[in-house]
Design a protein that fits this description.
The complex is a heterodimer of chains A (364) and B (186). Chain A has 364 residues and is of the alpha+beta class. Chain A contains 13 helices and 13 strands. In chain A, the strands form 4 sheets. In chain A, strands 3, 4, 5, 6, 11, 12 and 13 form a 7-stranded mixed β-sheet that branches. A 5-stranded parallel β-sheet of chain B has the order 2-1-3-4-5, sandwiched between helices. In chain B, helix 3 links the parallel strand 3 and strand 4. The chains are: A alpha+beta (364), B alpha/beta (186).
């Protein structure tokens, strides 16, 4: 490594410790940010440093482009990732639950960030083997950036304004590229209406991720029943209805597509078959539904329907976002348990052509 | 001279200056609640409606409050809208708000209390005792460090109606103490 002998690890350590002492860290070391590094980030966008890109009314805080850039740099992003960070943050703030109390919630939800389009290859976002990480700088640092913005800019820290009961493995680290090349279906961003080939980011809050391993059958309905079992589990049912997506591995997606299932067919099948019987809901103390749609243990048995019927829990296609990521080496997919409801709106990533010349000039 | 390490908080992480936000936060207190018009600001958390209704009923029965006006927040995670706070502070002499029983609603219930105090209306916020961290932090953030509120033991959501009424009775002395001045009308 030419030049490494001139780097000073002892000075670097002092700067890292300084960041810990300021209570800026999520627990892992931060990159100390200087003005020249910040300038390199700001040169990647045509947006002004003081432009506000998100606010949380309940804590009286606003995030500017500049503060987002400092946090993205601290998270370990390369400057060229910054437009993706901006798109990811904007996409997440379209999620009503994120604007509401999501970041403060006892459920400690994690953003799911999905990257589509050519920016995946240009910046090295992984969407194949090990898509959920770790091991890839772009995926790891973009997700971490969002967590640091919530912590430092919104001031929502664990055990203070953030009240997660247990938190969630993977919080602030879930950023996947969609494996568009091995998906039989149109990419998430294109499905949501963006022109094919657009680099875009979608985001929503998750309660958890749960694997479904079915390398056992070629029957598409048997495979879907295996997903329905995980999606329908009572432990995840809080309200009358729920939202739950699937990140299909290429093998499952191709099996389903090969059997004639389009994305909407899969959604409709899951909407039809995911749910529980009255008896199963009662057994778990969740057979009643209050006026504000919260489930409860019905005292008299006359809660949400008492005819012993089957209660579906996915009300619409919007409640079942589907995408494809992972390697083609096994039929292992991930059920992604949505905290609120995905906005259904991807945010296009700003491209170099969007950046005014004077902003580019700042890179020197 | 090395470059400075930049602050990612925009200055928000700094500690309040001595005395900042203190004083002038609390609305003037009455000597007692006889004849008081009570407002209830229900945040829709499980059992919050019954809990506050019972507190209101007991304030009328035992402390001479003359009326109870109940209002419900549309979004428990956010502070109450200005119009709702204005109505409560106009129509009521004191307001009870809660139950702060989640991460976001414990914070917003305290915020509502601080905002009502700023409008001159004494407020008693009720939180589950598991959410003191959030409640204290938002009080400081809203310029009222040390703002006092009442707590009820966690959990609240799973209680049956009789248990909720018992809890309301148990917290009543603390609620009254928050709303009146021991030294009489101030």
């Amino acid at each position: 490594m030419p030049g490494s002998a001139r780097l000073d690890p002892d000075l670097a350590q002092l700067a890292i410790e300084h960041c810990y002492e300021q209570d800026w860290s999520d627990g892992l070391p931060l990159v100390p940010v200087s003005q020249p590094l910040l300038d390199r980030f700001l040169a990647q966008t045509g947006r002004g440093p003081q432009e506000i890109i998100g606010s949380l009314e309940q804590v009286g805080r606003e995030c500017t482009v500049e503060l987002a850039a400092i946090n993205a740099a601290m998270a370990g992003c390369r400057p060229e990732y910054f437009p993706v960070v901006l798109a990811a943050f904007e996409a997440l703030m379209l999620d009503r639950a994120a604007r509401g109390g999501g970041f403060q919630s006892t459920s400690g939800p994690a953003p799911l960030i999905v990257v589509n389009g050519p920016v995946r290859g240009e910046l090295g976002f992984n969407g194949t083997g090990g898509a959920f990480g770790p091991g890839f700088r772009a995926n790891a640092t973009v997700a971490r950036s969002v967590g640091l913005i919530v912590r430092n800019v919104f001031g929502i820290k664990p055990q203070v304004l953030e009240q997660a009961t247990q938190g969630l493995p993977g919080r602030w680290s879930i950023c996947i590229a969609e494996n568009e090349e091995e998906s039989p279906w149109e990419p998430l961003a294109a499905e949501a209406g963006l022109p094919p080939g657009t680099s875009a980011v979608s985001a929503t809050l998750l309660r958890t991720c749960e694997f479904v391993d079915n390398r056992h059958t070629q029957d598409p309905e048997q495979v879907l029943w295996d997903f329905a079992d995980t999606i329908s589990r009572t432990g995840a049912l809080i309200f009358r209805e729920t939202s739950c997506g699937v990140v299909f591995c290429p093998e499952h997606a191709q099996l389903l597509a090969g059997a004639g299932f389009g994305k909407d067919d899969v959604k409709d099948w899951l909407i039809e078959h995911c749910g529980r019987t009255q008896a199963e809901l009662r057994r778990a103390g969740k057979d009643g539904v209050s006026e504000n749609h919260v489930r409860f243990a019905a005292q008299t048995g006359d809660g949400a329907g008492s005819d012993g019927g089957f209660f579906r829990v996915l009300p619409s296609r919007q409640h079942v976002p589907l995408m494809v990521a992972g390697a083609r080496n096994a039929a292992i997919s991930m059920v992604v348990r949505v905290f609120g409801l995905w906005s259904g709106t991807p945010v296009a990533v700003e491209t170099r052509a969007d950046v005014p010349a004077e902003a580019v000039g700042r890179t020197r | 001279m090395p470059n400075a390490i930049l602050d990612p908080t925009g200055g928000a992480g700094r500690a309040p200056a001595p005395g900042e936000g203190r004083g002038g936060v609390l609305a003037p207190r009455r000597g007692d609640l006889a004849g008081a018009r009570v407002g209830l600001l229900v945040n829709t958390k499980q059992n919050a409606g019954l809990f506050l209704e019972e507190v209101g009923r007991l304030l009328a029965e035992r402390h001479g409050a003359v009326s109870v006006l109940a209002r419900t927040k549309v979004n428990f995670a956010q502070p109450a809208p200005e119009g709702l706070l204005k109505e409560l502070s106009t129509e009521c002499d004191v307001v009870i708000t809660g139950i702060g029983d989640c991460g976001s609603c414990s914070a917003s219930a305290v915020t509502d209390g601080v905002l009502l105090e700023g409008r001159g209306t004494p407020a008693a916020v009720i939180c589950s005792d598991a959410f003191r961290g959030s409640a204290d932090a938002i009080a400081a953030l809203r310029g009222a460090p040390g703002y006092r509120y009442a707590t009820t033991p966690h959990p609240v959501a799973v209680l049956n109606p009789d248990q909720v009424r018992d809890r309301a009775a148990a917290v009543l002395p603390d609620v009254v103490a928050l709303l009146v001045s021991a030294a009489g009308a101030s």
